[in-house]
Specification:
single chain, alpha/beta, Elongation Factor Tu (Ef-tu), domain 3, Rossmann fold, Lysin, 3 domains, eight-stranded mixed sheet, six-stranded antiparallel β-barrel, 17 helices, 16 strands, elongated, disordered C terminus, binds adenosine-5'-diphosphate, binds magnesium ion
Length: 521
C-alpha cells in the first residue's frame, strides 16, 4: 500500500515538474494577422477593403484556400484578381494577407506531368515532387550575363530549319489565322527534341480542354512527355489563372535553364493571354487603349519574353528558346497584339490560310517569315544551300502569279517555275514526322543541284522519300561533319550528291517524255 502511494506521489511530482518547466520557458508572443473583407465579387475579380498594408502583387488568401493577387491598390480598397473558382466567394468574407508574392513549385519531378499554374496535377497522378519554389514574376537576366545565340534549335521541319532557322535562346513568333497549323509546328518542334537533349515546356493558355488533351495524348504517344512539362489554364478557368499561366511556365523553364539545360517553351497562345488581361483590366476599371487593350499589354508581353535568352558561361550556359503563338483574324498581321509581338520577338513564322487550302503543309509563307538571329546559329551545311533556295523560291512565287494567266513563257521562266514547284514540293511535310538534319541536307543539296528538276512533279514526293532512305548510306564521318559547326567541303558535297543522283535516277523522266516540258513547248 505504502509502496503504491510513493509511486503515485513520484509520478505526480514528475508531471507537475514538467508543467512548471514548460510554464517557465513559455514566452507569450503576439502574431500579427492582417485581415480585411470582401466588398464586391465579379467575374474573376474581387474588391477588398481593410488591408492598408498590402503590397503590390501580394498574394491574398480567401476562405476555402482560394488565392488572389492584389492588383489595384487604391486608397480605400484593393482590386484583386482571383486565381480559381470564385462561385463560393461572397461580399463580407474574410481576406488574409500572406506577405509573399505568387510563386510556383519547380523541379525535375515536373517532367512528364500536366499541371495548372498553381502546381496542382491535372493528370490524375499525385502531387509532383518538387523542392524549390520560384516567384512567377522574375527579373530577366541582365545583358552582361547573356551570350550570343550560337547553337541551332532543330525543329525537324525542313522549311524552318533551312529558311527560317531558329537558334537556342531565340524568341520566334508563330502567327496565322485559326486552323493554319500553328500548334502543329510547335508540337513538331517539341517532338524533334527527343535526341537533342532539350527539355520542353508546353504552355496551353485559354484553350478548350479537348484540344489540350489531344496535344498531351500526342506527346505521350510519341514518347515526348519524358522531357516535357505541360502547364495548362483552360478557356473556362478564371481569367486571373489564365493571366499568370505563361509566367508560371517561364519560371519552371528558368529553373532548368539555370541548371545549364537547354529549354524550349511554347506559349499556345498569347492572343488568349492578352484577352484575359484585357478582361481583368476592364473589370478593374483600368483605362482601355487601342482595341480596348490596357496600355501596358506591350510591357507585360515583353517582360515575359525578355526572360528567354542564352545564358553565358558563368551562369551555366543554359538557354531558353521561346515560341509564342498568336492567332490573327482575317490575316491581319498589323493588328495591335500581332505587331506588338512581332516587334518584341527575334522573327516570325507566318502561316497562310491560302497555302493551307492548297495543301502546302506546313503552310509557311516564306516571304513574310524571317528569323533575325537564327542564321548565325544555323549549321554551315545549310548555309551553303539555303540562300540559293530562298532566292529561287521567291522568284518562283512572283512568276507563279503570272503563269496563272496562261501566258506563254520563255524557256528560262518555265525553268524557274519548274524549279520552284519542286522546292515547294520538297519542303512539304506531314505532321509529327520530323526530318533529321542529315536527311534535310541531302534533300536540300539535291534540290539546289537541280537533281529534282527532271523528276515529274507528281513523283517528287516519292523521290524525296527514296532520297531520304538513301541518305542512310552517307558515311558516318561525313554525317559527323555535317552536324558539327564545320563548313561543307567540296568532297563531302560530291559524296552526298553521288548518293542522291543514284537514288533519284529511277524517278527522272528522259527529257523528251517530260509532260510539262511538252506543255511548255
Ligand atoms: N503539316 C501538316 N500536315 C497535315 N495536316 C496538318 C499539318 N499541319 C497541321 N495540320 C492539320 O491542320 C489542322 C489545324 O492545325 P492546328 O495546328 O490545330 O492549327 P492552329 O493551331 O493554327 O489552329 C489540324 O487538324 C492538323 O492536324
Ligand atoms: Mg492551335
Amino acid at each position: 500500500m505504502n509502496i503504491a502511494h510513493e509511486n503515485l506521489q513520484g509520478a505526480l511530482d514528475r508531471v507537475f515538474d514538467g508543467i512548471h518547466q514548460a510554464q517557465a520557458t513559455f514566452i507569450p508572443q503576439l502574431t500579427l494577422r492582417e485581415v480585411g473583407f470582401v466588398t464586391n465579387v465579379s467575374t474573376g475579380i474581387a474588391t477588398v477593403s481593410g488591408l492598408p498594408g498590402v503590397g503590390s502583387e501580394e498574394l491574398l488568401k480567401f476562405p476555402g484556400g482560394l488565392l488572389g493577387i492584389a492588383f489595384n491598390l487604391d486608397e480605400d480598397e484593393i482590386g484583386v484578381i482571383l486565381l480559381g473558382d470564385y462561385q463560393a466567394l461572397h461580399a463580407g468574407d474574410e481576406v488574409e494577407r500572406t506577405g509573399r508574392v505568387m510563386d510556383v513549385a519547380v523541379g525535375d519531378g515536373l517532367l512528364g506531368r500536366v499541371i495548372d499554374p498553381l502546381g496542382n496535377p491535372l493528370d490524375g497522378k499525385g502531387m509532383p515532387s518538387t523542392g524549390l519554389r520560384l516567384p512567377v514574376e522574375r527579373a530577366a537576366p541582365p545583358i552582361m550575363d547573356r551570350a550570343p545565340v550560337t547553337v541551332p534549335l532543330q525543329t525537324g521541319l525542313k522549311v524552318i530549319d533551312a529558311l527560317i532557322p531558329i537558334g537556342r535562346g531565340q524568341r520566334e513568333l508563330i502567327l496565322g489565322d485559326r486552323q493554319t497549323g500553328k500548334t502543329a509546328i510547335a508540337i513538331d518542334a517539341i517532338l524533334n527534341q527527343r535526341e537533342q537533349n532539350v527539355l520542353c515546356i508546353y504552355c496551353a493558355i485559354g484553350q478548350r480542354a479537348s484540344a489540350v488533351a489531344k496535344v498531351v495524348a500526342n506527346l505521350r504517344e510519341k514518347g515526348a512527355m519524358d522531357y516535357t512539362v505541360v502547364v495548362v489554364a483552360e478557356g473556362n478557368d478564371a481569367p486571373g489563372l489564365v493571366y499568370i499561366t505563361p509566367y508560371a511556365a517561364t519560371s519552371i523553364a528558368e529553373y532548368f535553364m539555370e541548371k545549364g539545360r537547354d529549354v524550349l517553351i511554347v506559349f499556345d497562345d498569347l492572343t488568349q493571354h492578352a484577352r484575359a488581361y484585357r478582361e481583368l483590366s476592364l473589370l478593374l476599371r483600368r483605362p482601355p487603349g487601342r482595341e480596348a487593350f490596357p496600355g501596358d499589354i506591350f510591357y507585360i508581353h515583353s517582360r515575359m519574353l525578355e526572360r528567354a535568352t542564352h545564358l553565358g558561361q558563368k551562369r551555366g550556359n543554359g538557354s531558353l528558346t521561346a515560341l509564342p503563338i498568336i492567332e490573327t483574324e482575317a490575316q491581319d498581321i498589323s493588328a495591335y497584339i500581332p505587331t506588338n509581338l512581332i516587334s518584341i520577338t527575334d522573327g516570325q513564322i507566318y502561316l497562310s490560310p491560302t497555302l493551307f487550302e492548297l495543301g502546302v503543309l506546313p503552310a509557311v509563307d516564306v516571304g513574310k517569315s524571317v528569323s533575325r538571329v537564327g542564321g548565325a546559329a544555323q549549321r554551315a551545311a545549310y548555309r551553303a544551300v539555303a540562300g540559293n533556295i530562298k532566292l529561287a523560291y521567291a522568284q518562283f512565287e512572283e512568276l507563279e502569279a503570272f503563269a496563272k494567266f496562261g501566258t506563254r513563257l520563255d524557256k528560262s521562266t518555265r525553268q524557274s517555275i519548274d524549279h520552284g514547284q519542286r522546292i515547294r514540293a520538297c519542303l512539304k511535310q506531314s505532321e509529327s514526322q520530323p526530318v533529321s538534319l542529315l536527311d534535310q541536307i541531302a534533300v536540300l543539296l539535291a534540290l539546289t543541284a537541280g537533281l529534282f528538276d527532271r523528276v515529274p512533279l507528281e513523283k517528287v514526293n516519292d523521290a524525296e522519300q527514296a532520297l531520304r532512305k538513301a541518305a542512310a548510306e552517307i558515311s558516318p564521318d561525313v554525317a559527323e561533319r555535317l552536324s558539327s559547326a564545320s563548313e561543307l567541303s567540296d568532297t563531302d558535297r560530291k559524296a552526298i550528291l553521288e548518293i542522291a543522283t543514284r537514288a533519284l535516277a529511277s524517278f527522272q523522266a528522259s527529257p523528251d517524255d517530260r509532260s510539262d516540258a511538252k506543255a511548255a513547248a
